[in-house]
Design a protein that fits this description.
Elements lengths: L1 E7 L5 H11 L1 E4 L2 E5 L2 H14 L6 E7 L22
Helix pairs in contact: 1-2
């Protein structure tokens, strides 16, 4: 499946979340990741993220699609990390 992940994490935990998400997805912008991932990998990422997060203040959102073909990406301004996965 293709996933776009977005997080809003407290300053003390943001470094750990960045490092974790980079293990599974491509970093494209501050707090934003995308890429192909299996269901098992996504569940593992979610479980590890919950250990880092403070559920009272932090959030992590996954946008899922069957694959990148079903998404259209438009970048306005500087693209921080160019990926050629989108058509």
């Amino acid at each position: 499946m293709y996933v776009v992940a977005v997080y809003d994490i407290g300053e003390k935990r943001v470094g750990k979340m960045l490092k974790l998400c980079r293990q599974y997805l491509n970093w494209i912008q501050n707090s934003v990741f995308e890429g192909e991932i299996t269901e098992v990998q996504l569940k593992t990422l979610e479980a590890k993220a919950k250990l880092i997060m403070d559920s009272e203040f932090d959030s992590l959102i996954f946008f899922k699609s069957r694959n990148a073909v079903w998404l259209e990406k438009q970048v306005v301004g500087k693209e921080k990390s160019k990926l050629d996965n989108f058509l």
